[in-house]
Amino acid sequence: MTIRVSIDASGGDYGILVTIEAGIKALSVFQDLYLYFVGDESSIRTELDKHPSNTLSSRYAIIHASEVVSMNESPAIALRKKKDSSMRVAINLVKTLEADACISAGNTGALMAISRFVLKTIKGIDRPAIMGRMPTMTGHTHMLDLGANVDSKPKALVEFATMGSIAVKHTENITAPTIGLLNIGEEDMKGSEKIKKTAELLKTSNLNYVGFVEGDDIYKGTVDLIVCDGFEGNIALKASEGVASMMGYYLKQAFTRNLLTKLIALIATPVLKDFKSSLNSGKYNGASLLGLRGIVVKSHGSANVDSFLVAITEAYVEAHAKISDKISLQISKELEHNE
Amino acid sequence: MTIRVSIDASGGDYGILVTIEAGIKALSVFQDLYLYFVGDESSIRTELDKHPSNTLSSRYAIIHASEVVSMNESPAIALRKKKDSSMRVAINLVKTLEADACISAGNTGALMAISRFVLKTIKGIDRPAIMGRMPTMTGHTHMLDLGANVDSKPKALVEFATMGSIAVKHTENITAPTIGLLNIGEEDMKGSEKIKKTAELLKTSNLNYVGFVEGDDIYKGTVDLIVCDGFEGNIALKASEGVASMMGYYLKQAFTRNLLTKLIALIATPVLKDFKSSLNSGKYNGASLLGLRGIVVKSHGSANVDSFLVAITEAYVEAHAKISDKISLQISKELEHNE
């Protein structure tokens, strides 16, 4: 079975400079992969010419799109006015079943809005949730929602857990992913009313729910999947990015304070590189929009080639595992059961 | 005017081993400081004997308390059963006006419960909020609530802003502290309904409200004061601690991988020390319980002598500035105005 992935080639901070090379790399890694490069045809062709790949050219197609959704564009405008954007055309290919998954490094809000409009959500799901991988001391974990949904009700949080559990199970080969609910204390009595109610629902579900986790558990790798409302999820993610930037800033400061420290930095270069690579967020690129009738993966806007390749891999693996169909099946079973 | 601070000497992970030495140091730094060391009298005396301080002995008193609240004790039990705990007796001294402020490194939940029971909250405030200092790339900022209040209503969030603004103004000498509301996007349309409502209230207030901030703004130092519900505040704080631990772990890993990297670590020791000191969370020790009829400062449980000294300094500065009275006055003015 060939896995067909449509790439919003013009999306992201670097557009085709990154997406084309990453796509070519992906084709050489996955022999059963077929790609649609969606964007300005002549620019894509020029970029492809830089990467001679005679044996690969039968495994991709260029789909022209005359517009681009910019990174700061209002999602509503992108949705209503840019019907021929590379993002929209790439998503259309999933809708028409020409592609098994779509990937974009473009504007997150626009990707959410257009995916939801074009693909629609699974019956029983109102808005898709964003699941991302987070580095931990022992490897990585998964967390959703990272910002697509605010004011989520307990029932919605349980749906996040269901969808995330299926995705982690099939993309990571974990039989029953352990699930933690993000809270501000591990005791049953702590937390908001909404979280207590959600915990009750999770306890009676078929999911492998293990209990409350706290903010620091994300990076300890306590569980395979952390469930939270998009408000807290996004704040935790952004605060984490903020601390990491600050620590990087102070580390650089310490090593560039004077001539001696600069010399020490030179000596320590391999160690610092090793440190950086263990924290390389690019290794965890590729967030999944779960709950759609189709697979859509969001790459970080500033992804480089290697990191965009990681996100293409995520789309490829999800398409292979038919994540969207599996989630749809499970949610519809639960709806029937509750009717 | 002498500033009298009561110290829960037995509180925290290290108890009198840390609190007494820090107290003695504080007395030599602040000439107008008087201390109450509250805890087991004979243990305190033995510890004090290790720090001969003939000239200082007129500036402190030992107040015996027969019990200690343990770090994992239920706040309800601590409140109901341990009426002669060092924590409770230290707070009682603020109630009886024998002390101008109290400081404890003990169990946060118990400190909240006992402070609230003994001192009561300011009229119009239901529960105190916890304000802490956070390191930034440019210095430090303040954030509240860090976990005392969940499901806070917009009105309560505005009270946090009022209390925090007064505290920052008078302890940091900033005429009109800039205030940001923690949200998941900077645009007006983003965020939960509660946050949008709160923003409307803050815009019409007399506070120096500048708008929404995101999680990464905490560490950029975008504003002087960040306001949020205790649920998000605690998650942001814990997630940040988690990232910092993980980065520290990977940095150590990189430097201890083999003999060569260990040698490099040796050479880089002064730089790594410099880096650690710039991030030293002990410099920001001392969270304020705002909204009480009295000043209560919470030290981190694992604080060392220097870091506990920072927290004593916070209590001293707040007592000097009569933070609690100033907050009470402002809140009562606003209550009258709204009646």
Q: Quick recap of the structure?
A:
Chain A is α/β, with parallel strands linked by helices. Helices cover 49% and strands 16% of the residues of chain A. In chain A, helix 1 crosses helix 2 and helix 6 packs across helix 7.
Distance between the termini of chain A: 37 Å
Percent helix range of chain A: 40-55%
Largest contact between protein chains? A-B, 56 and 56 residues
Going by helix content, strand content and strand pairing, the class of chain A is alpha/beta
CATH class of the largest domain in chain A, anyone? Alpha Beta
Helical stretch tally of chain A: 12
For the residues shown, what is the average pLDDT of chain A? 92
How much of the residues of chain A is beta strand, in percent?
A: 15-25%
User: What count of structural domains of chain A?
Assistant: 2
Output the strand order for the largest sheet of chain A: 3-2-1-4-11-10-5-6-9-7-8
CATH superfamily grouping of the largest domain in chain A: Isopropylmalate Dehydrogenase
CATH topology of the largest domain in chain A: the name is: Isopropylmalate Dehydrogenase
Order of helices and strands of chain A: EHEHEHHEHEEHEHEHEHHEEHH
The assigned CATH architecture of the largest domain in chain A is: 3-Layer(aba) Sandwich
Note the overall shape of chain A. globular
**Would you report the number of β strands of chain A?**
11
Name the assembly state.
homodimer
Supply Rg of chain A: 21 Å
**Biggest sheet details of chain A:** 11 strands, mixed
Low-confidence stretches of chain A: none
